[in-house]
From TrEMBL:
GO molecular function: transmembrane transporter activity
Protein name as it appears in the record: ARAD1C21626p
Transmembrane helix keyword on record: yes
Pfam families for the chain: MFS_1
Disordered, as annotated region: 33-70
GO CC terms: membrane
Keywords on record: Membrane, Transmembrane, Transmembrane helix
Subcellular localization(s) per the UniProt record: Membrane
Amino acid sequence: MTMGAQTVRMASGAPVSESNYYDSFAAELTRERSFAGDEADGDDQSVGSQESQADDDREPDGLSTDESMINNGTKKIRSHVAPMLVMFIFLFAQTFISATNVDVVLELVCRDSLLSTKHSGGISGIEKGDPRCRQGPIASKVADFMSYVTIIPPIMGVLIVPKIVALSDRVGRKPVLIWGGMMAAINDVIRLLCVLFPDTFNYRLILVATIIQSAGGSLPAVHAMNAIYVSDISYQESRGSRLALLDACLFGSFAVGPFAGSLLYSITNSRGAVYLATITLELLFVMLVMTVLWESVTPKARRSSIAAHERRYSMHIGEPELGSKARIRRWLKMMNLFAPLTELKFSHLPKKSLRHNARLLVGIGSCMGDIAVALGTIIVLSLEFRFNWTSVETGYALSVMGVIRALTLGVLYPMMTRKLHSLFPVSHDTVDKSDLVLIRFGVTIMAAGVVCFPYAPTGVICGAVLAFDSIGAVCIPTIKNAVVKHCKPDSLGQAMGAMSLLSSLAMIIFTKGFFKIFSLTISFHPQMAFEVAGGLLMLLVFLTFFFHTSIDDYEEVHGVDPATQYFDEV
């Protein structure tokens, strides 16, 4: 129950270097801005047209003319296989170390408390499963420290991550991906030092390491950037299936990563070896991003985003109070942590119904994923309390969930998408019936699994319920793809950053709420937290019936019936 965030064929697809690309990009950008009635954008577009000749002579980073040629109006783009493999390396590295991170925190905190175990040779002096680490004040100390480690990422997600993701519109995707990989590597270097030299490097430095990683290198942040990159290099028609494949990589890494990390530890009996392997994978990811991936944001798109950013934080030079007041006002505007949320107003969309659909999609997507993630730890605790499971049995269950999710997104999702597209008209601009079917199906499966899980009488049946619940993952790439349909081509990173901010806020609320319910009702009705979560998920299913039909919106905007257009294309 975990969740793994996202320019058009011209503006959200693969960038190309021919002059046709820039002409089409400019035309599409003009259309988007005319919908919003932004006169300043129109002026910048005129300026951009004066630079078109220079742009025609300059190719986007990393693309050759042969690789970006246009044949019969259809762009030829590079394969997405190499980017997927590069991104899988980072996902694998993060899940590879996940189980070790928990054990290291437990053992370091316990070692610091049990003075008799202190020595200079690392943390191996504490026996695995030492009962002293789970008794009295030490157990309380471990729980308190883990609560800080757990709450830092969503807080940093509110403070920093949205701005970093939005920055990728102006500087490109590759620099932000490299930044994320480096932050993750630095985090693991600090943890490695704490493991090897616990007398010199206090375990509290893990909090510093967590803050560093959360500043762009956390798994959710980098996975969100991966999704944006995949959206950039994909046609509208193939974007949904490629996002599904990316999520399959995520859940596939959850299936094999912890197992591989545990296997390495069992062979070497060294947590340092596990951290060294993880750091090596993270640095390999950085090197491959620098050398293998090509920049997916064109120079023209970056200049357009920079111009939009400057307008957004301009000092209003024509105002009479220009001076210290204007500078203070500008500073306050730039420091507003919740300013990215204004991107989710979708004011550039031409119809109120389209804006309604986009906002509803963002709300459903954020709440659905965060409910699932917030329940993750409670599921593990419930399995251990009810069936006396250890991390071994729990690991097996989580691996099964990862495998089912990977198969669902890699096999079932494309099959369902192809079938639904043959039955219903397809819209590349707003929610269509295929999207609604997949969203309702996925969230309903998740709700059923959440409600049934606490009532399963045996551990085997609980595992089967979790496997069934994993099929609900089909709604994850569907919602991402539907949200991307509504985003402005030149501010996709800003929109995804705003969604990350909203998701982080929701994560704090749901995590605290479910844990509070679980702790208050565990003695007399431990199913309460799961019942509340299931009820919230069914509420999200109910909200999907308030989407406006895509056919009316699409026909009014484009002057064509999407059904006719689809079958003409076929």
